[in-house]
Design goal:
This protein has about 450 residues and is mostly helical. The protein has 16 helices and two strands. Helix 4 runs antiparallel to helix 14 (about 375-395) and helix 4 (about 90-120) packs antiparallel against helix 16.
Length: about 450
């Protein structure tokens, strides 16, 4: 599946911008919220650390195929283009359809995370104009307006060009790394009782179950690294550097996840006691108790950086994926148009924005059901990419990449098994299955509609 014509993207992204894009997408709201909500309850501090490291290593294997294909296909669209080249248009559509959901859902979820930050750091400030409750989550007009403001602001930033978005992403990513490492150092240097980490694994289950529960989340935890190929047409440097940039982002992401989880587990009291108290936000409580107002300011700044960088990264990725799909007639042609001045896919950016602006009205619990499917979309994208690398490298007689592609495809398939096999540590919630079913049905309908132009026309 080759590009039909040369498009007018501007080549303005530096290596550090691409690294910031990937890391900012990897580290979002979940790094700060999930220690108390999922990481520790599922795995304990030791299980989380081992599971995240193991998941990161598996993703590194998958990234070999991404690096290989970025060099061969330095165009926007990433997995969609790879799957089409190796397996044809139907597989390309299937891959792209799930990735659009995976990428898009993380835009509004990071936006609504601003409400979570404000509820803990500035209680009552924007919790005004209560509207209703959805699945137990109170929806306030003030929070909807704040989330909408930042979504619109970052959409405008992306419309004005990837150069400004890249500079912003790099600055915020560096701020994110700095603030998390600073918080970790302040809490650990202040003296902690390392016995608080016991038991290292969740009680009542084998240790490997704790580890696998986190490994199953790896497609969600590291999905941001595959933003790198989506902006491949906008690099101002050699595409040969892309694999090292992905490796650096994945490694940094794993370290930051483990840092935040560890200080949550060790910083205040034994982690199981902390969870038994059912805190509103475990990480925030630990930082507040240990470091006071200064710690909360640093934490707030860190989480703000994570949220904004996540929104920005997935605006870029989703719009470039939709642009590539439109170029191949897998989406309406309007999404394949670039702004005459800024050379950005404005219709796609606006479409992502409009969908994202609807989401805050439904509260975070419903969004969480959708985002549970991010792991599914990510794993499908990984599977297609590795399988594509195996097929294409075999045709080109580059057999070392064929082996890497086959291993990566097996890893990706195992990720899917952990999500779909009942009783497995990563088995999806039933609400996620309902949402997934709706998305599959929509995909079938949409495919039938586009079939005459997409499949039959050359």
């Amino acid at each position: 599946m080759e590009k039909n014509e040369k498009q007018g993207f501007k080549k303005t992204l530096r290596p550090i911008d691409v690294w910031g894009l990937a890391l900012g997408a990897i580290i979002g709201w979940g790094c700060f919220v999930l220690p108390g909500n999922a990481f520790l309850p599922k795995a304990g501090p030791g299980g989380m650390a081992l599971g995240m490291l193991m998941g990161g290593l598996l993703i590194l294997v998958i990234s070999i195929s991404y690096g290989y294909l970025i060099r061969r296909f330095p165009v926007s669209g990433g997995e969609f283009v790879y799957a089409g080249t190796a397996f044809g248009k139907t597989h390309a559509f299937l891959c792209g359809w799930f990735l659009v959901l995976a990428y898009w859902s993380l835009v509004p979820l990071n936006g609504t995370a601003l409400a979570l930050i404000s509820r803990f750091l500035f209680p009552g400030i924007i919790q005004v104009g209560k509207l209703y409750e959805v699945a137990g989550w109170e929806v306030y007009m003030g929070e909807v307006l704040v989330a909408s403001f930042f979504l619109i602001l970052l959409a405008i930033l992306n419309i004005r060009g990837v150069k400004s978005a890249g500079w912003t992403q790099t600055t915020i990513a560096l701020g994110l790394v700095s603030t998390i490492l600073l918080l970790t150092a302040l809490i650990l240097m202040g003296g902690v009782n390392w016995a608080n980490l016991n038991p290292l694994f969740q009680s009542g289950q084998p240790w490997y179950t704790s580890v696998l529960a986190i490994v199953a989340m790896a497609p969600w935890a590291f999905i941001g690294f595959d933003c790198v190929p989506q902006a491949a047409e906008e690099y101002n440097f050699s595409h040969n550097k892309s694999r090292n940039l992905m490796i650096a982002a994945i490694a940094a992401g794993a370290v930051l996840y483990i840092c935040v989880n560890t200080i949550t587990a060790v910083g205040l009291k034994p982690w199981q006691e902390l969870l038994n108290d059912k805190p509103f936000w475990a990480t925030g409580l630990v930082v507040e108790e240990r470091l006071g107002a200064i710690g909360l300011i640093i934490l707030g700044l860190s989480m703000f950086c994570a949220v904004v960088s996540g929104i920005n990264a997935f605006f870029i990725s989703t719009s470039r994926l939709m642009y590539a799909m439109a170029q191949e007639k897998a989406l309406p042609a309007i999404f394949g148009k670039l702004h005459k001045k800024y050379a950005t896919p404005v219709p796609a950016i606006i479409f992502v924005l409009l969908l994202a602006l609807v989401a805050p009205w439904f509260g975070r619990e419903v969004l969480g059901w959708i985002v549970d499917m991010t792991s599914v979309g990510g794993a499908i994208g990984f599977l297609y990419t590795c399988a594509s690398a195996a097929v294409i490298s075999y045709r080109k007689k580059e057999h070392s990449y064929t082996v890497a592609g086959v291993i990566g495809a097996i890893i990706s398939f195992c990720f899917l098994l952990l999500l779909f096999i009942p009783g497995s540590p990563g088995f999806l919630y039933k609400q996620a299955f309902y949402c997934l079913g709706v998305w599959v049905l929509l995909g079938i309908v949409f495919y039938i509609v586009i079939y005459p132009k997409y499949i039959k026309e050359k």
